[in-house]
Design goal:
The chain is of the alpha/beta class and 547 residues long. The protein is 36% helix and 17% strand. It has helices spanning 7-17, 32-39, 52-66, 78-93, 119-123, 139-151, 188-200, 215-228, 259-267, 322-327, 339-350, 362-372, 387-393, 413-423, 435-441, 445-450, 466-475, 490-496, 507-518, 541-546, and strands at 5-6, 22-25, 45-48, 70-74, 97-103, 129-132, 157-163, 170-171, 204-208, 232-234, 249-252, 270-274, 297-302, 316-319, 378-381, 402-403, 429-434, 455-461, 500-504, 523-529. The strands form four sheets. A six-stranded parallel beta sheet has the order 3-2-4-5-7-6, sandwiched between helices. The chain has a six-stranded parallel beta sheet with strand order 11-10-9-12-13-14, with helices on both faces. Helix 6 (139-151) links the parallel strand 6 and strand 7 (157-163). The longest helix is centred in the N-terminal third of the chain and has 16 residues, at 78-93. The N and C termini lie far apart (77 Å).
Length: 547
């Protein structure tokens, strides 16, 4: 006879069955039955956070690192709205995650009960699937479907609402076995045609990264590109697709790319788009590569058929999982292109900092980090111009070493670093944040300390919302409104959390400060003060205003 279990117990049992070993949460009275079940479930590490936005970002990052859904639990109303930022990021970044929301009792539905929201309606536009579980007996079905939906095709977020009284129901339920992702294999004829087009092309380039990218895919595609001599170019914030020391690695697209690299893309006669969606940032507002790309052939490989021919016209569309696709690439090519090696030389020059007359120059600081930190360090950042120095000068070691939102959400770096530190305790984890970015989720320092994280945090402080200030100077020179910031002493703030911290104000002081930080255990912070005039790695505010 099947044993009666509460809905909360059935839910936790089925998460364990799916391989869940960590949950990020801000606890709520709406899912007490789940918390009670977790009390007796040592297989799952419960990470208690300080704000639901941090919860969701941690789940996003964890899903990226594990290739299985990161799991978040929040309460109804304010909890769900706070967590919605992570759902949006997971969708735009193709990250598998599942957000569970404690909901009002079924008997009070549609009365605008305390903190009531129609969650399937609210999240439908920004999630792969959003639903409510009204029957505890169907929890195993919903959990299995949620995992399959989050992982298959283009990975992304699923949102499930959990009525409080449903979680307390004692019912019989049949658990479901573990669900694994299903990745399509490439059609051999289409793959052969892609290789033929590559051989015939005079100026091919490959734009890589995105959904379903694994170390195995990175190695196979890197080996093929070396043999073919095809330059490998990262889509926006996908710079860890392959190790950047690959001899045909050409750099990254996005904001402020190498002009020589952008010119290579414009002049290419064949665009091999492998895993990338060709979003707005990667294509410079759909102008570097236009949706119809006249004069260029475009081969698009993606694991989700609905992404093919969605925005960009594909001359050849291949629906395939990236690992399966990469495994079927032939290791050699009929024609050896020379552009790959040339593009890599341009990349090395572009990523070597040139002297600038600045009190604090972040370029040499990044070069110092390259010398002193392990090559496989995991670099986590949110949104802001400060990230551009690392996008340009840091050299990523391969899949799982860059956690950065392609959706451009602020406040991502610190929560992502917490998730990375817990998931990869053997690796050096670095969180990067601007002064505005840090205070979006700086409260998760408490989470990092409570859960014993080992991570280095760099706060780049120019006393401004720098990116918006740059746009103001370009559009309305000298008319500054709403972008100045009065900041705390970030080093003192970190010490209040129980962390080691130091303040750095000159380029020369950075290396010894980094050495001191690396000698300390736990969570460490360097408060780096910069001048807002040095707005990017390549220009100044004054130069922007003069344009």
């Amino acid at each position: 006879m099947t044993k009666l279990r509460t809905g909360g117990r059935i839910l936790v049992d089925n998460l364990v069955a799916q391989g869940c070993d960590r949950i990020f949460t801000v606890p709520g009275e709406s899912f007490l039955a789940v918390l009670d079940a977790l009390h007796d479930t040592p297989q799952i590490d419960l990470v208690t956070c300080r704000q639901e936005g941090g919860v969701a970002f941690m789940a996003c990052a964890d899903g990226t690192l594990t290739h299985r859904p990161g799991i978040a639990f929040v309460t109804r109303g304010p909890g769900a709205t706070n967590a919605s930022i992570g759902v949006h990021v997971a969708m735009q970044d193709s990250q598998p995650m599942i957000l569970f929301i404690g909901d009002v009792d079924r008997g009070t539905k549609d009365r605008e009960a305390f903190q009531e929201i129609d969650f399937p309606a609210m999240f439908a536009p920004i999630a792969k699937w959003a639903a409510k579980i009204d029957d505890a007996r169907r929890i195993p079905e919903y959990i299995a479907r949620a995992y399959a939906t989050a992982m298959n095709g283009r990975p992304g977020p699923v949102v499930l609402a959990l009525p409080e009284d449903m979680l307390l129901d004692e019912v019989e339920a049949v658990d479901r076995p573990k669900v694994d992702p299903l990745w399509p294999h490439p059609d051999p004829d289409l793959l052969e045609e892609m290789l033929r087009l590559t051989s015939l092309a005079e100026r091919p380039v490959a734009i890589i990264g995105g959904a379903d990218w694994t170390e195995q895919a990175g190695r196979s595609i890197s080996n093929w590109a070396i043999a073919a001599g095809v330059p490998l170019i990262a889509a926006f914030r996908r710079q860890d697709a392959v190790s950047n020391d690959c001899p045909v690695w050409a750099g990254n697209l996005g904001y402020g790319p190498n002009p020589k690299l952008a010119e290579r893309v414009r002049e290419a006669d064949l665009l091999l788009v492998i895993g990338a969606r060709l979003g707005e940032a990667t294509t410079d507002g759909y102008t570097l590569i236009t949706p119809d790309h006249p004069g260029q052939k475009l081969v698009h490989i993606h694991p989700d058929a609905t992404e093919l021919d969605r925005t960009y016209r594909a001359d050849l569309a291949i629906c395939a999982g990236l690992t399966a696709f990469a495994e079927n690439l032939t290791p050699s090519a009929d024609k050896q292109h020379s552009a790959g090696v040339e593009a890599h030389a341009e990349y090395l020059d572009w990523t070597t900092p040139k002297p600038r007359d600045l009190k604090m120059d972040l370029g040499p600081c990044v070069a110092t980090m390259r010398d002193k930190l392990p090559a496989d360090s995991i670099i986590c950042n949110g949104a802001g111009n400060y990230s551009g120095w690392w996008h340009r000068y840091w050299r990523y070691a391969g899949p799982g070493t860059q956690l950065a939102p392609t959706a451009g959400a602020m406040g991502y770096g610190v929560p992502a670093a917490v998730a990375a530190s817990l998931r990869r305790p053997d690796r050096q984890v670095v969180a990067l944040a601007g002064d505005g970015c840090f205070l979006m989720n700086g409260q998760e320092f408490a989470t990092a300390v409570q859960h014993g994280c080992n991570m280095l945090v760099l706060v780049i402080d120019n006393s401004a919302y720098g990116t918006i200030r740059m746009h103001q100077e370009r559009e309305f020179p000298g008319r500054i409104a709403g972008t100045r910031l009065a900041n705390p002493d970030f080093a003192a703030l970190a010490r209040a959390y129980g962390c080691w911290a130091d303040t750095v104000e000159t380029t020369e002081d950075f290396a010894p400060a980094l050495d001191r930080a690396m000698a300390e255990p736990g969570v460490r912070l360097l408060h780096i003060k910069t001048d807002v005039e040095a707005i990017t790695a390549g220009t100044t505010l004054s130069a922007v205003a003069r344009r």
